[in-house]
Every structure is written in structure tokens, then in C-alpha cells.
Amino acid sequence: MPEEIQEAARLDGANAWRRFRSITLPLISPTVLLVTILTVSGSLEVFAQIDVLTGGGLGTSTTVLVYYLYQQAFRFNDFGYASAVSVLLFLIVLALTLVQWQTRKRWVFHEA
Q1: What protein family does this chain belong to (predicted)?
Q2: Residue 36: phi, psi to the nearest 5?
Q3: Which residues 6+ apart lie within 8 Å of 112 measured at CB?
């Protein structure tokens, strides 16, 4: 973050909130968008933590889509159904990524 831009805004009389909203946030918006996309898609692919910590136990409270897919394929040997669930997971991740990518036009003010 260039200090000169912050200093120029400070000299123009912008308070801290105005500097953050008008200068800092637009400059870091590409990074925020990338982190948001990676976090959302990564949160839908949680498997190892559930398998190691609970082993899929505690009823169905720790069952997420990826763990459900694993159970159908490798515990119940229902590979066709697991394939359908994996396609559903792909479509969900794709849809969320596309929605976030389309909102970049509103949130990202400059792209390299």
C-alpha cells in the first residue's frame, strides 16, 4: 500500500474511515476477491479434518458433501451414486465461483 496515497488523502482531510473505504479497500479488492474464491471452494472440500477428528462419527453432524461422497464410494461401494454426488459437488463449486467472479465487476476497481 503506497504511503503517498494515504498521506495525500490525509492532507485532503479524509478521516480514517473514508481513507479505508475510498483508498485501502479498492487497492486490496483483487486480493480480497481471490482469497474469498479460494476460501469458499476450499471449505467445500474439507475431508481430512473430519476423517481424522471424528471418523465421520457423531451421527451425521460432521457429514459434509465430500465425506458423504467418500462414504458412498469406499464404505458402501456405490460408485455410481458417488460419481453423481461428485458431479453435484463440482457444479456447486463452479456455480459459487462463477457468482463470485461475476461480482468482481462491482468490487474490483482495477485489474492488472
Answers
A1: Belongs to the binding-protein-dependent transport system permease family.
A2: -65, -45
A3: 30
Residue 45 near residue 97, CB atoms below 8 Å: no
What mean pLDDT is predicted for residues 73-98?
Answer: 93
Question: Quick one: CA torsion of 64, 66, 72, 76, rounded to 10 degrees?
Answer: -90
pLDDT at 82: 96
**Contact assessment for residue 14 and residue 6, using Cβ atoms and an 8 Å cutoff:** no
Q: Tell which residue, 100, 73, 74, has the closest CA to residue 86.
A: 73
Intra-chain end-to-end CA distance of the chain, in Å: 15
